[in-house]
Amino acid sequence: MFRVAIVLLTGLATLSGAQTAWNLSGKVVDAEEGNGLNAVEVSLVQAGLRTTTAKNGTWILGSNVDLRSRAGSSHRPESFLQLANGRLSLRLDGVDLRGRALESINPPPAPLAARALDAVWDTLVFSRDGFIEKRLPLFTSVQPGMVDSLRRVRYEGWVDSSHSNGFKPDTLDVFPDTVRKFTFRFAKAKWDSMMQAMTDSCGKFGGNRTNCAAAGLDFIESGATIWVPVDLHADGQVWKNIAIRLKGNASLQTAWKKGTYSLPFRINTDKFEDTYPETKNQRFHGFKKLTFYTSDQDSSSVRSPIASEIFRESGVACPMAVPVQLFLDRGDGEVLNLGIYEMVEVPDSPMLNRLFGNDTGHLYKPESNLSKFTQSEWFDEDLETDYADVKALVAAVNASNRTTDSAAWHRTLEAVIDVDGFLNWLAVNTAVYNWDTYGALSHNYYLYNDKGRFRWIAYDISFSFNLNMTMMSRTSIWYDATGGFGGGGSFPLIKNLLADKTYCERYRSHMVKAIAAGGPASAANFQARVDRYATMVSAFPDALKSAQGIRGVMTTRVAEIEKSLAAKTCPLK
């Protein structure tokens, strides 16, 4: 949709047979984007005039436009508008734009008769591919500053408040305190193409083995997960031709081996807008990207939502998450109930604006332990960068002066990364026993360059509260050699900070605050959240049982943390 502002530089009501300079001008603005819309054709039908909006949406029709009255005529004619038989005519040396002679017309009486005020003088027409043409009659009562609007061509069922990007993202609409039902409806050919790409790369679906291992921490090569269009149904509404792909590494590999259709998915609501223009800037209640995690990763589907609340209450940047129920229509007439999932927001514009007040900086999802810069560990298909900010970060983390001039090291490091924010994340992450991230493995975190300084963002936290895993220490929170962290010292941002007395004490302070009575990660706070989410998933017996089974985790974990806090003094060597 765009708005049209018509500014009358010469009042129509004063036009007469006298030669008069005149202008109709305005600006075309895309109502969803709020910026000028170029390449809109603006035409004045009876006068036969037309123009096209500039890049900023401005347009002008009038005597100051270089028009030619006759073929081969090189001079600019005197021109003016004249009311004739209820229509607006443009006089150019006695002929109209089509070369027809204009009769001499006596000027209308002044003031114009009442009936003349109702007469249509001419019609402005605004048209552009992808928009609905609008015809705007010009009456003698047209006033400067008149505003009108045009809409984009949309599909049936489009609702601006839930589908467009012109409304502020509503976290309550997307992440409610009830289990929402989603259905993915595929055209059969699109479903088959998505599955075939995975088969070609990884082997037979349900074949109990895969052979698609990629380098590093990836178990699935990127070419195995292609985007295809799908319709998303929720709450009696439909979002058409959103993009969907399979996602994940271990979780996808596990599901593929089992041959279960409970696969992990990621969606992007307007990725195919060039192919389907009616989905231009489509959003799901303001959100563009969402991820759906299977219950294989968390049988309760509440670990990530609970951990997310604890992180966010602690002041740590973290995506929102809720349990949902997913249905799958593969285009063969059968709708499969895939059961309970976790739906998680992907760090992007809504989250970045909500937390940091901007979304203009570089956003990275690294697979790096930050010991050295390796470009392949920082690849992002949507990012164009020379990685200068990343190189500066890695250099600062590993600077040799951290032991010889700690004050200088502090200044350099804090100029490129929010150190206190990282230490807060580290404390809360360690408290909730989220082992599948930096400190045990070099993945599952985001870094956002917020106006020159990186902010740490927690991500993929659904393995939290699982005390049976051995990738994280049950006896030490200090990432030391006796902690059993699978390498401990191989993560220099942790090792170097905890070896510095000031930073080590900040980490201790954040940990004490997190687990204190009434704190975000306290046993009582955790149990209250478990009970609330258990009520949400009560219709799913397996999820309910699993949720109830973790209710005592933080009672055990807080006792372990308190013992470890008392066992060490800062700094760690």
What does this structure look like?
The structure is a single chain. A hairpin with a 4-residue loop joins strand 3 (41-44) and strand 4 (49-52). The strands form five sheets. The protein has a seven-stranded mixed beta barrel with strand order 11-12-13-14-15-17-16. It has a four-stranded antiparallel sheet with strand order 5-2-1-10, with no helix packed on it. It has a four-stranded antiparallel sheet with strand order 4-3-8-9, with no helix packed on it. It has helices at residues 114-117, 160-163, 171-174, 188-202, 250-258, 303-313, 349-356, 388-397, 406-416, 419-431, 492-498, 501-515, 523-536, 541-549, 553-567, and strands at residues 2-8, 23-30, 41-44, 49-52, 58-62, 79-84, 87-92, 120-127, 134-139, 146-150, 180-185, 228-234, 237-246, 265-268, 289-293, 321-329, 335-345, 363-364, 445-450, 453-458. Helix 13 (523-536) runs antiparallel to helix 14 and helix 13 packs antiparallel against helix 15 (553-567). It has 573 residues and is an alpha+beta fold. The longest helix has 15 residues, at 188-202. The relative contact order is 0.08. The chain has three domains: 2-150, no CATH class; 160-352, no CATH class; 359-567.
Give the number of helices. 15
Termini gap: 62 Å
Uncertain parts: 1-21, 65-80, 95-99, 104-120, 140-144
**How is the main sheet built?**
7 strands, mixed, barrel
Q: Determine Rg (CA atoms, Å).
A: 32 Å
The chain-level structural class is alpha+beta
Strand content: 15-25%
Kindly state the mean pLDDT as a whole number?
84
Largest sheet, order of strands side by side?
A: 11-12-13-14-15-17-16
Number of strands: 20
The percentage helix is 25-40%
How many domain regions?
A: 3
Shape: globular
- Quaternary organisation: single chain
